[in-house]
Amino acid sequence: MKAAIYARVSDDKKKSDGDRRQDVNRQVDLIKQHILRMGIKGPKIAQIYIDDGKSAYTEDWNCRQGFKQMFNDCRRYLVDQIFIEDMTRFSRRLDMGLKWLKELSDLNVNLTSLKEGELEVTSSKGWMQSSLLLMMAEWDSRVRSEKVRSGMMRAKAQGKRIGGRNPTPPALNKSRAKK
Length: 179
Known about the structure:
- This protein has one domain (2-156): Rossmann fold.
- 48% of the residues lie in helices and 16% in strands.
- It is an alpha/beta fold.
- Strand 4 and strand 5 form a beta hairpin.
- The protein is built from 6 helices and 5 strands; from the N terminus they run βαβαβααββαα.
- The termini are far apart.
- The chain has helices spanning 24-38, 65-75, 87-90, 94-106, 124-157, 170-178; strands spanning 2-9, 44-52, 81-84, 110-113, 117-119.
- A 5-stranded mixed β-sheet has the order 2-1-3-4-5, with helices on both faces.
């Protein structure tokens, strides 16, 4: 087996304590532990593909270099098994997710999610399950987007500045002026 790990997080924002809200290495570690627990004798991890701070809602392959490289390696038959944490790491778009699952199937590449199990679109049951999972992932993405837009509109109505570069804090301006 030529296994690959794909991990993705959407943002690189930090919590109040300075740690990142999302850590792509957490996913990689979980998947490695899963592979060991499966008892597969000597699975060869061909590659670990990572997209850090990248959305799964985009159609543009160039925004997800790790994902693009993973598919190119599948097309070159360097990978025949992909492990992900859950379907939302793979895609948050019903149309694109089904297209990509079909291509993996055509290449005889298995996709396994730690949360949802084996994902495929070749059987009627697999197509239905994958479609529902992708639809829920897209729905969740749209709901989150609506909440963010609503919060931005509220902040703007309160006179808060939205977007753009933050001005240099006054304390930094003073320290720069002394130099």
